[in-house]
Amino acid sequence: MTAKRNTPVALIRQAAPFAIRAERASDVVAREALLDACFGENRHARICQRLRDGRAPAEGLSLAAVRQDGRLVGTVRLWHVSAGGRSALMLGPLAVDDDCLGVGAALVQRALAAAKARGHGAVILLGDAPYYARFGFSAGKTGELSLPGAFERDRLLGLELVEGALDGAWGMITPTGAVPKVKASRTRKALLAVPHAA
To answer: What are the EC numbers (predicted)?
Structure first.
């Protein structure tokens, strides 16, 4: 008679198929919900948010990961900054649905490839070094850079897409991205359409 062994089995989640595409205006609600779920409702108070507030993401560098059913399961954006006088991009936030394996890595790889193809020289971020090291990020050239507020020095990471792009970078990281044009409000449009009495 053969005895049954009670061997623990590790459950491996299957990666659901997904596609990465440019972010669309129709993604906003799902994107905001995913960011809230990943970072909490106080995410707007985070230090890197100060570099994004009132700025538009870098053109062509806002990506969304969507499943076959159209559900948004990941997002990443890159933003123009000055890294101590050096032109660079800031990566973040990167957010991924808990049930989706491989989405975060795929988004980062696609974002970095797109940034390089567009001629950008460097990308910096504030994040977990063990996770981002696999993409080539390190604190090697960010030691003289600062952010507008308290931050953990070992989490400020950089990646040169062009060799030497961060050489000699020192000082404050500041936003340089475009300020979105504000469209005229409906009220203003309505007022302009009403004929005025003389």
So the answer is: 2.3.1.-
How many structural domains are present in the chain?
1
The whole domain housing 114 covers 18-179
3-state SS assignment for residue 161: coil
Residue-wise pLDDT for 91-112, tens only, equals 999 999 988 889 999 999 999 9
Is residue 5 included in any domain, yes or no?
no
Q: Say if CB 148 and CB 48 are below 8 A apart.
A: no
Q: Is residue 188 part of a domain?
A: no
6 is a domain residue = no
The CA–CA distances, whole Å, from 51 to 2, 7, 48, 131 equal: 65, 51, 5, 22
Rg (CA), the chain: 21
In contact, 73 and 18? CB cutoff 8 Å: yes
Say if 79 falls within a structural domain.
yes
**Confidence at 164, pLDDT banded by 50, 70, 90:** very high
